[in-house]
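Deliverable D5.2: sample structural annotation.
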Amino acid sequence: MARTNPYQTPIDNGQTIRNRPVRSLVIGGIALTIAAGVVAIPGAYFFNEEAQLIPTMRGIYDVQIGAITITNTAVIAFSGILCFCLWSTAAGLWGIARRNHFLNKH
């Protein structure tokens, strides 16, 4: 007597196998990478002002918004942390997209 798998779905039932999304994850990863680059610009600019890696003739010491003074270090730290979070999320999306692409092919 042949044993059959009771959990196996019949092939002739008309069900199609749905592919996992890849394109939307890649587009989201690209968008987050661009956003991370835009967020990194102020931090890189203020880091250059602090470290003078590329010498400039002017200096920015603090940023004042209304009555609140924000130091260069705070701008660098906030920009760096936010850029890292965005880039990490983008890398996660790329990893999921790569896994889904592999699973769709096999």
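Annotation notes: Helices lie at 23-51, 72-105. The radius of gyration is 25 Å.
The annotation will be released with the project's public dataset once the embargo ends.
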